[in-house]
């Protein structure tokens, strides 16, 4: 029974130990997962901040391009104003030409020179601003395409980061799920093992109970045998004492009869012999009384020993039953 109690305490201690180990492992994984979530949130925030900064810088660059385009428009407007002024001058010249008055040769040459310079200037302005307009248009389209490409790239990077974070979270969830499954299967295995150990403990208890019952029955049988033997010995002793007592009484009666007959026969002959016979009779009577007292004392001692043995057997039975 003591071995079973020690085994039970050992299994209970081992179960508590594995439970504490599982708890600390779970706390460690939970703390690691929380730290990873905080780090992912910080990294995502930094990435979004970097994306926003780069995008704002690119927008500012595009805005500067649009500001340059505004300056270019102002320049074009000034050029258009000059062209309008020139056209106004042309109209004045045309009105002068349509006049009925004829110009002199010098005036005509000067007018042709002015017209040629005017048209040459208009052509140069058209060539200059058309090339600049084409170049700026190409730059603007290039910047727009770059802006769209960078925007798409930033969005793709952002989406890739989100997918990466989601994949990491999914991976950690899978790891935790596998961990929980492993510990669940381990708990089921330990539960089956503990159930098997409990069944073995119950079988051991039943075997111990059966052995105790057999020992108790054996002790009862031995007790009955001992009591039977003691009772037989007691009966034999009592019978022997009774026989001895009867034999003593018979001998006493015989001696008494002999003494009486001898006494009656010798009274007349010799009083001295009668006294001797009386002394012998008294000594024999005393001896028989002493033997009777000794047998009675032995019988009492035997009764006391039998009672002590019975008390010890009863105490042994009560302890076995407890």
Automatic annotation (TrEMBL):
Q: Which residues form a coiled coil?
A: 191-229
Keyword Transmembrane helix found: yes
Locate the transmembrane regions by residue number.
21-39, 169-189
Keywords of the record: Coiled coil, Membrane, Transmembrane, Transmembrane helix
Name of the molecule in the record: Uncharacterized protein
């Amino acid at each position: 029974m003591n071995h079973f109690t020690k085994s039970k305490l050992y299994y209970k201690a081992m179960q508590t130990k594995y439970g504490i180990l599982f708890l600390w492992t779970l706390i460690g994984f939970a703390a690691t997962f929380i730290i990873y979530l905080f780090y992912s949130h910080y990294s995502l925030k930094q990435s979004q901040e970097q994306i926003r900064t780069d995008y704002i810088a690119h927008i500012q660059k595009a805005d500067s391009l649009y500001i340059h385009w505004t300056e270019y428009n102002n320049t074009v407007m000034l050029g258009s104003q000059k062209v309008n002024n020139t056209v106004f001058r042309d109209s004045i010249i045309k009105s002068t030409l349509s006049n009925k008055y004829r110009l002199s040769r010098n005036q005509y040459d000067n007018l042709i020179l002015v017209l040629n310079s005017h048209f040459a200037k208009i052509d140069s302005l058209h060539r200059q601003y058309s090339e600049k307009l084409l170049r700026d248009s190409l730059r603007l389209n290039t910047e727009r395409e770059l802006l769209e490409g960078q925007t798409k790239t930033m969005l793709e990077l952002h989406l890739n980061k989100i997918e990466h974070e989601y994949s990491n979270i999914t991976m950690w969830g899978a790891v935790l799920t596998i961990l929980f499954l492993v510990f669940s299967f381990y708990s089921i295995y330990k539960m089956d093992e503990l159930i098997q150990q409990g069944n073995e403990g119950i079988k051991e208890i039943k075997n111990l109970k059966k052995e105790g019952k057999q020992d108790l029955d054996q002790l009862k049988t031995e007790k009955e045998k001992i009591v039977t033997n003691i009772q037989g010995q007691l009966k034999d002793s009592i019978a022997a004492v009774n026989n001895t007592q009867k034999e003593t009484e018979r001998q006493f009666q015989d001696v008494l009869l002999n003494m009486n007959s001898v006494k009656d026969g010798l009274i007349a002959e010799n009083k001295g012999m009668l006294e001797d016979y009386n002394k012998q009779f008294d000594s024999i009577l005393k001896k028989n009384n002493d033997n009777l007292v000794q047998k009675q004392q032995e019988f009492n001692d035997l009764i006391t020993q039998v009672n002590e043995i019975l008390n010890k057997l009863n105490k042994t039975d009560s302890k076995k039953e407890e």
